[in-house]
Amino acid sequence: MMMKFVMEFPAHPQSQKMTVAAFRVAEKKGWMAKASEWSQFYVDQFNPTGDNLLEMLVLASFYHEQVGLYDKAIANYKRIKKEFKADGLKPNYRNLFEQSQIMLEMLEKGIVDPEKQSEYLMRKSGMDTATVVAEPAA
Q1: Which of 59, 27, 58, 56 minimizes the C-alpha distance to 43?
Q2: Residue 138: which residues within 8 A CB-CB, separation 6 or more?
Q3: Hey, is 104 helix, strand or coil?
Q4: What's the rounded Cα separation, in Å, for the pair 16 and 30?
Q5: Helix, strand and coil percent figures for the chain, each rounded to 5
Q6: CA-CA distance, 118 to 132, in Å (whole number)?
Q7: CA dist., res. 77 & res. 129, Å (int)
Q8: 104-116 residues labelled b (16+ CB within 10 A) or e (exposed)
Q9: How far apart are CA 127 and CA 122, in angstroms?
Q10: How many CA atoms within 13 Å lie on the side-chain side of 138?
Q11: How far apart (Å, rounded) are the C-alpha atoms in residues 111 and 117?
Q12: What pLDDT tens digit does each residue of the chain (138 aa) get?
């Protein structure tokens, strides 16, 4: 209901807040497709800047990945790479930036499965994946 209003009246003074509220509801309810759509709508429609832009691009990318929209996730991660520099960011946002660039690297290589991503990260860090033993299920 909120997003229907926002889509019809994006210039309304409350549309930006309503989009964030709708996105957060979708996030909490596990509506991955809506979270993907609405977080990207927020970025595209309201042109956030600075830390807010970085955070929303990462969130949109995460939800794009969850629903298989890898091209959209890659585009956002590339935008992050273009618009931000790790050195100029606060520590928490620097971590977001660095994680986004690792995700970009993996997605560009076609590594989308979480288990394969873990293996890739272990190999990249020098860990021998053959010696890693999973904990038995409780």
Answers
A1: 56
A2: none
A3: helix
A4: 21
A5: 75, 0, 25
A6: 11
A7: 27
A8: bebbeeebeeeee
A9: 5
A10: 0
A11: 6
A12: 889 999 999 999 999 999 999 999 999 999 999 999 999 999 999 999 999 999 999 999 999 999 999 999 999 999 999 999 999 899 999 999 999 999 999 999 999 999 999 999 999 888 766 655 555 555
Pull the structure tokens for residue 104. Answer: 């970009």
Strand residue runs (E) in the chain? none
Contact 45, 37 (CB under 8 A): no
What's the confidence (pLDDT) of residue 126?
86
The torsion defined by the Cα of 74, 112, 64 and 35, in degrees rounded to 10, comes to -150
pLDDT of the residue at 127: 79
pLDDT at 136 (0 to 100) = 54
